[in-house]
Amino acid sequence: MSLELIFAFILFAFVTSVTPGPNNMMLLASGVNFGVRRSVPHMLGISIGFMILVMAVGLGLSQVFQQVPELYIALRYIGAAYLLYLAWKIAGSGVPDADSTEKRPKPFTFLQAAAFQWVNPKAWVMAIGAITTYTPQENFVVNVVLIAALFALVNCPSVGLWTVAGSLLRRWLAEPRILRLFNIGMALLLVASLYPILADAHGKI
To answer: Could you give the CA distance from residue 116 to residue 27 in angstroms, rounded to a whole number?
Structure first.
């Protein structure tokens, strides 16, 4: 890959990573509810899970979707259904009861965040765009690995900005009623983030 192409891809990776989407809405809520430190596994899971997804798409999974487009559509709707479930969980969360440990909410683990990328519609659109637009055919496998690694390096600090932003809001959201309203708002934004992603993905089938 030329330096010009690498710089263009880094810009693409930053813009697609930092703009609103399911991961960033969830990290904003995680920053508010759990703080930055407890959200670090969530952030790392997103970046590593997405890196693996990009490599999988580059090494042949995109060809499977071209041959079986119904599989691509099915994955979009499975992801949408799971996101709606997550939105419901976020909307129902609030300040935990100090006397209750069983119902106390927990942040996403590394593995949960990594696995989530496989049902995240925006992640699939980003991965396919990266492979089809920025990956030269010469030394293709090496370039796929390079693209995936660069994406992970750019993605982690980009999504981390949303976690930090959430943590900075914690003092203004200490009131349980206000925190509940915030979580409901984040859930609605998470649902809203589905529309353009699904519309774009469905239009490419």
So the answer is: 13
Residue with tokens 């508010």: 32
- At 10-36, the pLDDT tens digits run 988 898 888 878 899 899 989 988 999
What does the alpha-carbon distance between residue 171 and residue 168 come to, in Å, rounded to a whole number? 7
Residue type, 128: I
143-158 per-residue burial string, b: 16 or more CB within 10 A, e: under 16: bbbbbbebbbebbbeb
Which tokens go with 29? 């809520």
- The upper half-sphere exposure of residue 36, i.e. CA atoms within 13 Å in the direction of its Cβ, equals 12
Residue type, 187: A
Q: What is the rounded CA–CA span in Å between residue 172 and residue 179?
A: 9
3-state class (DSSP) for residue 100: coil
Residues 177-200: tens digit of each pLDDT: 777 777 787 778 767 766 655 555
Cα–Cα distance measured from residue 191 to residue 136, given in angstroms and rounded to the nearest whole number: 35
- The CA distance from 76 to 134, in Å, is 23
